[in-house]
Amino acid sequence: MVLLSDAAVVETPVAECDERLVDLRTVGALRLDSRLADSAGAYAHVRLSVVDRLVTAQTLLPAGLRLLIVECYRPMSLQRHYFEAHKDRLRAIQPGHDESWYHRRASRYISPPEVAPHVAGAAVDLTLCTADGTELWMGTQVNDTDSEACHTDSANVSAEAARHRRYLADALTSVGMVNYPTEWWHWSYGDRYWAHVTGAPVARYGPVSSLPAARPVPAVN
Predict the structure, then answer these.
(1) How close are the terminal C-alpha atoms of the chain, in Å?
(2) pLDDT tens string 128-181
(3) 109, CA 20 to 30 Å: which among 82, 143, 146, 199?
(4) Are 36 and 220 in contact (CB under 8 A)?
(5) Burial (0-12, 13-18, 19+ Cβ within 10 Å), 74
(6) Residue 144 in contact with residue 150, Cβ under 8 Å?
(7) How far does CA 168 lie from the centroid of its chain?
(8) CA 23/CA 41 separation, integer angstroms
(9) What is the pLDDT of residues 76-115, one digit of tens each?
(10) Distance (Å, rounded) from C-alpha 43 to C-alpha 84?
């Protein structure tokens, strides 16, 4: 399993294409979940080409199913906080290792900030729901990394959950997105990890320093 901290990923060059971030709250075709919503709306922003792929992927799902978007762009400061906090937890429960061990171990579930797909606006954490918004069971909750059941190909999930994961994977793979194999919910396009997995010579997207100017968000009736 190639982790985000692996040299092959970290050393992948970036040829930033300056593609804009899109606020998914203005894209009526996709449903957003509010569990990780922030006041600036960062969670709802993602690169334009990722939006196009998500919209297309949704049309490839079995009838009656929809994508449910949980989190997209993540500011660098928040990514650093998540990563360092996870290393601190590891130090507390597994003391005695050197810093490189904690860095690599943490990257199983939280990306090192310098290569984080979310920071580049290239990644989306998502799940599936029915047309009326009822969330499907996928074997774990989104962001639940307490057991290896969160691994995309885990055998420790029910047949129903495994089937739902296949629906999600088949649709997203078909539009050129790649999965981080320790997290069934994490998919990306255009970042360093995507470049490594697909064999692209460069990543399309590097870190985004700030959100675009706010646009009016349609009211929800």
Answers:
(1) 45
(2) 999 999 999 999 999 998 899 999 999 999 999 999 999 999 999 999 999 999
(3) 199
(4) no
(5) buried
(6) yes
(7) 13
(8) 8
(9) 988 888 888 888 988 998 999 998 888 788 878 788 888 8
(10) 20
